[in-house]
Amino acid sequence: MRLLNFEVNFEFYNKTYRNMNNFEYYNPVNYIFGKDQWAKLSTLIPADAKVLMLYGGGSIMKNGVYDHVKKALENHEVLEFGGIEPNPQFSTLCRALEIIKEQKVDFLLAVGGGSVIDGTKFLSAATYYEGANPWEILKNRIRTEKGLPFGTVLTLPATGSEMNSGAVVSRAETGEKLTMGGPGLFPKFSICDPTVVHSIPKRQLANGVVDAFTHVMEQYMTYPSGALLQDRFAESILQTLIEVGPKVINQPDNYEMAANFMWSCTMALNGLIQKGVPTDWSVHMIAHELTAAYGIDHARTLAVILPSAYYYKFEQKKQKLAQYGKRVWHLSGDSDEVIAKEAIAKTKAFFESLGIECRLGHYTENYRGFAAKVGQSMINHGMLALGEHRDITPQDVERIVEMAY
Ligand code: NZQ
Ligand code: ZN
Fold this sequence. Notes:
Layout: H1 10-17, E1 30-33, H2 41-44, E2 50-55, H3 59-62, H4 65-72, E3 77-81, H5 90-103, E4 107-112, H6 114-128, H7 136-139, E5 150-154, E6 166-171, E7 176-181, E8 189-192, H8 202-220, H9 228-250, H10 255-268, H11 282-294, H12 298-312, H13 314-327, H14 336-353, H15 360-363, H16 370-380, H17 394-403
Parallel strand pairs: 1-8, 2-3, 2-4, 4-5, 5-8
Antiparallel strand pairs: 6-7
Helix pairs in contact: 5-6, 8-9, 8-10, 8-12, 9-10, 11-12, 12-14, 12-17, 13-14, 16-17
Bound molecules: 5,6-dihydroxy-NADP and zinc ion (ZN).
Residues 159, 211, 214-215, 284, 298 line the site of zinc ion.
């Protein structure tokens, strides 16, 4: 190709400089997948450990998971703490923290979905935290290098928390929902039995599909970066979720679907697909504000923000959107631009087909002026530059939220 001297050789640039970033891939979680794995708990947790078993609102009592866990741990000393709510609350976790300290607990076992697991991760970090108030771990983004050891028994595929080292904790008194993490917060093990899916309400299953789907998108929908294998991993998870998502919602007792759903959710956020590539995460950071303000389910807030964020950042994302449109949705069209737009519409239609609405106005009538509050909250939390280019300012966030009204 002949170029005039003022032209940039994009072809050369594309081929030469789009290199995968350097990376380290560390994931020490012993991931135990399949039917009837409960009994292994007895050997996974040290025999002399004083265990605190943590759970949520009681679904484990109804679906038999509680009995399986108690039986497996009949020779262990096990205390219990129930009542961790969806979007785990700091105040509730502080009560559990007192028990851990008073009773000198030395192993935590989370039995539940993302909320119980995240709450347990917070407790793991807070036990060794020496500052004045453990909320500082979230507020000041303190990484946890060493936490109290814990394992998980997953009851709801969605977040990937069972195989990552991140957590999200909410604080109703201040209207905050913040993230934390660090290498000390990987579970020692996670028991992932797909038969738990049969008792999950349809609403939570739909949430799980959309949450996992968005996790993949946050790590994939950026710009081409020469990471060919990561792209294919990401696209295969998206395609699997599109295939099994509707089926698992309609037939939660279909083991084949449940198994593929569970593994897809884990693979969406266990660190593998983010290695060597730019990541976005602006959809999550903005969406957390919607849960903090209105209590909307995590996945539903993602469905509200994702289309709006992608339209807003269309120019920067359009190459990857077109790739996604062609490979995942098998779209063809007159131009990449057309395919990229159609790809956003397809994503929105997929969420809606699962019963998840993509407009904030569907969830609350009280949204006037909310965008400005979210912008302010970004400033308060020091989130001044979001997205893969670190160019989404609080003002941009405000516009993205307005577009989602
Ligand atoms: O409270 P219980 O009784 O356990 O009932 C739960 C809860 O009401 C129910 N449920 C769970 N397993 C069930 C079941 N009901 C019947 N049968 C079962 N087998 O489902 C409801 C929702 O549970 P929850 O744990 O809140 O859902 P999810 O797993 O979607 O977790 C959401 C939380 O995870 C955070 C979210 O922000 C939110 O706070 N996230 C954590 C991430 C991480 N650590 O990596 C990443 C995500 O992006 C997400 O932000
Ligand atoms: Zn999520």
